[in-house]
Amino acid sequence: MSTTNTPKPAPSxxxxxxxxxIGIDTQYEAVVFMHKECSVCRSEGxxxxxxxxxxxxxxxxxxxxxxxxxxxxxxxxxxxxxxAWLRLGLQDGGIxxxxxxxxxxxxxxxxxxxxxxxxxxxxxxxxxxxVVDGKYSDIHLSSFVTACATRPLDHREILALTxxxxxxxxxxxWKSSVVxxxxxxxxxxxxxxxxxxxxxxxxxxxxxxxTSSRAITSPAGTADTMETMAPVELDIADIHRVVxxxxxxxxxxGAVRLSPADDVIIRIERALDIDTEGQMIASVLSKxxxxxxxxxxxxxxxxxxxxxxxxxxxxxxxxGLMAVAEAFGIRTRVTIGDGQQPIGRGIGPALxxxxxxxxxxxxxxxxxxxxxxxxxxxxxxxxxxxxxxEGQGETLAAQTLDDGRAWAKFQRICEAQGGMRKxxxxxxxxxxxxxRAGRVFEIDNRKIAKLAKLAGAPDDKAAGVxxxxxxxxxxxxxxxxxxxxxxxxxxxxxxxxYASANPGIIRVEEQ
Amino acid sequence: MSTTNTPKPAPSxxxxxxxxxIGIDTQYEAVVFMHKECSVCRSEGxxxxxxxxxxxxxxxxxxxxxxxxxxxxxxxxxxxxxxAWLRLGLQDGGIxxxxxxxxxxxxxxxxxxxxxxxxxxxxxxxxxxxVVDGKYSDIHLSSFVTACATRPLDHREILALTxxxxxxxxxxxWKSSVVxxxxxxxxxxxxxxxxxxxxxxxxxxxxxxxTSSRAITSPAGTADTMETMAPVELDIADIHRVVxxxxxxxxxxGAVRLSPADDVIIRIERALDIDTEGQMIASVLSKxxxxxxxxxxxxxxxxxxxxxxxxxxxxxxxxGLMAVAEAFGIRTRVTIGDGQQPIGRGIGPALxxxxxxxxxxxxxxxxxxxxxxxxxxxxxxxxxxxxxxEGQGETLAAQTLDDGRAWAKFQRICEAQGGMRKxxxxxxxxxxxxxRAGRVFEIDNRKIAKLAKLAGAPDDKAAGVxxxxxxxxxxxxxxxxxxxxxxxxxxxxxxxxYASANPGIIRVEEQ
Lengths: 511, 511
What we know:
Two copies of one chain form a homodimer. Chain A is an alpha/beta fold. Chain A has 18 helices and 20 strands.
């Protein structure tokens, strides 16, 4: 079968419009506003909410089209959201072309998986490549994530997804043959050991170029917390410079395009509040592989309301992580920890930063549980990397912390990353008090995390929850159990409303 | 645990802004534009892409927030998309309040299903209620649809989903104890029998208040085709009036809130290009139950590129549909038909309407396959409803069509629905021709449907594909096999590009 005239190479001829910056923040989503009656919409048959391909020079972005019927937008204009404007690298009055995007072939692979097939290496490569290229709408992204969660990825698929995620981004390489790294599985509020572990390990002469993520479903990720103390959006050159100079860094992984698909997938998982084993393994390890890590310690807290709830689940997850890590040549050790209650006092970026600073500075009131966990992880990593004999890593880590070398190293890392700064303090606070005297017998990690999120964390850096009670401590009636911190009265009220509707966040039983 | 002051009953105090209509068409999506520095954004801690609750009097809608940093929007204004404006029923200068929406509790049920649990009746009721209430974002909707497709719904879940979908909308009730209905499983382009079956059945004195859907993943649904001949967006009062007067109607189901969740779910399935058995059964039957149907004929075309590809699949689907239908007291008969190639000549709303009109008018060149299938279905329905003895329904149907009663009834139904009109003709056409002489041995239903969709169907009513060849017919080299119809040059080029890249749409073998 043939057409009577050969069609043009492009699906349709591009149409040129004057780009206009109108200062609309749509976050990640690229949006273009065009007049409904403009020649492009008419000739291309575009309707509102179509996805359209915008091109400016060598750059392109797929955007959601909204159509304007008033004189807000002229007929020869295309008004762009900030996200679209920046991705196209436009100047005022620049010219863009608008056309139909090609069909996204890899969506057929997503459909196949929904209908029961496994995904091949090539299929996952094409899916992840299209995800990174911005070709998937939220509907498509959510479907891919959900299909891989509802019928979990098998080992081969996890390997292939990890590989595809690494290949879709940049990679770091290091002169040192030992590149240390750590990762916490998360789910435990306040478990902010990285800013303590990195300076200890770096102070001992090891290389530890740590990239961390922002929060997925939690009130703070390490990058969120670290950002309250120093810039974390380092590019590859910055990371190399900081690590060459100081031996370590604590940077946001998303700014360096290490596994850039991960950040897209994480945004969807966050909206769905899900975080499955296969995607978690691929998420964690794709970052580590792309970062050039060779020795990795995994922190897996276990507790009834932590992400991992039983020793069996921890073993299964550890086995999955180790199997994939070893397949990529990364030496790995898993450290199972107590996940019954939050670590430290603060939950939320700035509140956790104050805990970190207290430990590094050796303050008398520093949270001892945070200190102990950081030393355990640093010790395991020092041993794995061969910098201390088996069984002596933790002692060496404690010495490095206690003699001030870790604190000095942390300050130098912050300066090298762009300058140390003081974490913000919240503007609106309210304590939650014990209704009766008694003993604290349960702290629900999930509910306390939700409380911190409703208060504004992690987007509002100073927001969150400050715990005053630990499991087993005795309290009197009316004594504050925790304080909710917020940056606006609306969010404070929102969090307090949740607290009053959920009395089981911190349970006190009469003695 | 208690807060020191009782929080206000609402999660946060509502904030009042002047509503401004700016004429932005975002289709179904409700969008609100507010200044980033306005008091509401600041005090509530809103960031771009947050979902916010808008209230005006008794009405409310959950909208996506975009933040403006220029003077496009004043600090005391909230500019609304047309969808949000219309749902709030606003007048110019009206006042709206903006606040955080309550957390969507039913999303926990969606997560449970992802993690392996079945959904209870109550869970499905709360999910569907929230879906209809607009509380689910596209990410949430896509996750629900995908979770129910990846691990298919079981019989109990399908029953519960069907029930929940019926309960979430309006219901029709009829004086007649026999209410006839039909449904085609779809997947077969051009299979547009409803506008022929309804007037035959109604002309025989039976009651047939037919509500149809728009296209899901196909180039035309019955409502899309019918709309080119008469208005289909009838409200409940309209439907009752038309049916009381003429015995039948052919209306769009979505306009009457019969199973309104169905239209939301269909939009997601369309974007994903999936259509699973459980959701299909719930979709079909929830509409029938809500429409008050008592006797139902199901048309299931079977062919290698139809939706149902084998006799076994047809039996399984029939069994599933019949089991659920019977559970709701609907007498059902399944008619398996030939699904090897499209029915009739036209594929696309208006092109199919011309086929329907040719059959109803008894035109010499009317497509005989469309006529035969419509008579088979009408005959089966007449027998099931007791209006003809077994084995004589089809003959009675043919008489009613041939003596002009059906055509007269169709015209009266169109007039009662708001006035008969002439389907539009396309403005841009191009034939696809045979590259060699030979015999047509394959027509790919899926590819020809995709070709029609790329040409603009169903949104562009006149767009689609007109077939000139049937399976087994002989063609000479250069003879047109079909003609692509479009309403814009861009879409015509887009479809032709696909055709040239996919030579197997209509296969000709040398004789």
